[in-house]
Amino acid sequence: MSRFRWAVCQLDSLINCLTRSQLRKSLAALPATLDETYDRILLAIDNDHSEYALRILQWLAFSARPLRADEIAEVVAIDVKGNHGFDPDQILEDPLDVLKICSSLVTLTAENGSDFEDETDSVITDAGKRGCPKPTQKKVVFAHYSVKEYLVSDRIQRNRAERYSIQYAASNDLIAQCCLVYLLQFQDPVLFCEKTIRKSKLARYSAKFWTRHAQAAGQGTEGLNRLIMELFLLPGSAHLNSVRIHDVDFSYKGTDITRAISEVPSPLYYASLCGFTKIVELLIKATGAEVNTHGGGYGSALQAASAEGHDQIVGLLLAQGADVNVQGGRYGSALLAASARGHDGIVELLLSQGADINAHGEYYCRPLQAASAGGHDGTVELLLSQGADINAHGELYGSALQAALVEGHDGIVELLLAQGADVNVQGGRYGSALLAASAGGHDQIVELLLSQGADINAQGRFYGSTLQAALVGGHDRIVKLLLAQGADINAQGGYYGSALQVASAKGHDGIVKLLLAQGADINAQGGEYGSALQAASAGGHYGIVKLLLAQGADVNAHGGRYNSALKFASARGYGGIIKQLLAQGADVNAHGRSSSALMLAWAAGHYGIVELLLGQGADVNALNGVYGSALQVASVGGYGRIVELLLGSGRRPSAVDWMITAD
User: Fold this and answer.
1) Residue-wise pLDDT tens digits, 312-371
2) Whole-angstrom distance, CA of residue 140 vs CA of residue 56
3) Domain membership flag for residue 232
4) DSSP secondary structure string, 553-619?
């Protein structure tokens, strides 16, 4: 690949030869290696453009996303050394001049992805419509990956083009400073609007990514820290307008130019969130920033730093009197935030400062549950060693044991059980630990829980029983294990009503046979479908319907959404099942809470089913349902063939029917 790239570069240089003499001379002086080739290209850059070239190469090497030509055109107009300003007169008149400045090191690409979907007014064609991008809106990229590889390598520092050597930390520091200088121009809170953002090509990038580049720069230079403080504290609305463009605290939200200053968290909050230790120190010492101010997605500066794992900042805030147990925000408390993210050092620090180890939060409810759900073994052990309530109840998971089970952290499950976790704590999404394990298909954990005395017939919300939970997930091995351990095969409750109904609805023929052989009540009522036969009919499972009927299922059992198996099959168009049901004596004219089978078939437009039901004596004159009569249902639905069939069946249309079917 490097040889091919070398050849391309030589052809690029030879193409400018106008005479044979020039060509011979150029051929004789061709560089031997790709590194030498890049050196030659870099050294050939016009001295007047060398500063621009270096700036552009740094941005292309370390930008958070690919940049457009019109964005690069503004990069060169930012002064971070002298007056710290953005000079519109320094913008490249033609953004495509970037190709001239950097020669064959860069190129344009028209590829469009998700990079810009929230960054600009999208891609505009020359005609002003969305489609192919203008040249100035194309992405500027390195012509080959080897360009960046050489620029960041040690090799360039030993060659003649060493001034173009670019390093990660220094380049990110520069880019962050450029972004900040750019944002500082937006001082007016009133005149700032969407039009301003659209005209300022680099505005969205700067607002969205300045913090990322500042973080990548490490501790940051004095110049970078000074600019961050200027953005946060200078009179004017630069910080407000930056947050309006993009708020790093709510990255998923778009631009909101109506946002008021009262809705924006304090600079201390943002510095703590982003991990700017030096800025936090400066804000506290130089300005006396209040450490317990509420606001932001996390609720406070301490919670933000705890969630993001910024140990030093947590220590600074606590030393300045931050309330370790302040409530609110995404997690509820600093300890909950640190536990959920697995920041053991911060957890330990917060506990040493009096954090409530069993503090209640809105989502995870308890620190131990948060750590268990996140799979943070070390945090779980730390919290337990400090006295966390292993059986504390919670809304989402019910208990720490359930949290670990639901999220699939078997090691933590074993740890909690070894520490005495109650296997029968009720509550949470699943109802119990055994229900959660059964639904998740964790065979070994189910066995472990049962050996620890888990209630095999514990009730749940959606699943109703452990047996139902395993069946819904299709975990046959667990089903057999539970049956062997004495699970109540006829336990009622949950969405499906019974285990047999679950198996029938899901089409598990073998399990249906097993359940019947084990004594499952074939006509048990309840749940969404009403009975096992209705469940199988609704799912179109012909073989199970046949099996259930052969085993004595009540073909006219009531209950469920449609109130009979025939209605389910008619509504969904399962002709073979309908024939089976009718052959076993299904009542073709049963009504109940819903419309008749004929009405449901008409409503769904199943022509063949309508004909079949009429042939079996369906009452064509029955009046029920929303539209009154079957003819009206077919007419309103636009089912012409069904209307013709109905009119030919012997029913005399009413005046209302004629009004509906008239052209």
Assistant:
1) 999 999 999 999 999 999 999 999 999 999 999 999 999 999 999 998 887 778 999 999
2) 10
3) no
4) --TT---TTTSSHHHHHHHHT-HHHHHHHHHTT--TT--TTS--HHHHHHHHT-HHHHHHHHHTT--
Contacts of 499 (CB under 8 A, 6+ apart): 465, 467, 468, 471, 489, 490, 491, 515, 520
Query: pLDDT digits over 156-174, tens only?
Result: 999 989 999 999 999 999 9
387: exposed, middle or buried (Cβ count in 10 Å: 0-12, 13-18, 19+): exposed
Question: d(Cα 185, Cα 196) in Å, to the nearest integer?
Answer: 11
**Burial bucket for residue 139 (CB in 10 Å: 0-12, 13-18, 19+):** buried
H-assigned helices in 333-409: 334-341, 344-352, 367-374, 377-385, 400-406
> Do residues 631 and 647 touch, judged by C-beta distance below 8 A?
yes
Q: Which two tokens stand for residue 559?
A: 């209950």
CB 399 within 8 A of CB 421: yes
CB 199 within 8 A of CB 192: no
State residue 121's pLDDT score: 43
Instruction: With beta carbons less than 8 A apart as the criterion, state whether 41 and 104 touch.
Output: yes
Domain total in the chain: 2
Over its C-alpha atoms, the chain yields an Rg (Å, rounded) of: 36
Minimal CA–CA distance to 38: which of 167, 159, 170? 159
Q: What are the structure tokens assigned to 6, written together?
A: 């070398």
Contact 533, 500 (CB under 8 A): no
Q: Which two tokens stand for residue 535?
A: 């469940």
CA-to-CA distance for 639 and 175, rounded, in angstroms? 65
Number of Cβ atoms within 10 Å of the Cβ of 547: 20
DSSP line for 175-219: HHHHHHHHHTT---TTT--HHHHHH-TTHHHHHHHHHHHHHHTTT
Q: Within 13 A of 419's CA, how many CA atoms are on the CB side?
A: 21
Q: Which of 166, 188, 223 is the last residue of a domain?
A: 166
- Would residue 150 count as lying in a domain? yes
Q: Which range marks the domain in which residue 600 is found?
A: 595-663
Last residue of a domain, one of 99, 133, 166: 166
Residue 239 domain-assigned?
no
Q: How far, rounded to the nearest angstrom, does the alpha carbon of residue 534 sit from its chain's CA centroid? A: 37
The verdict on residue 252 lying in a domain is no
Strand 85-86 and strand 78-79: the pairing is antiparallel
Cα–Cα distance between 35 and 15 in angstroms, integer?
20
**pTM (2 decimals)?**
0.80
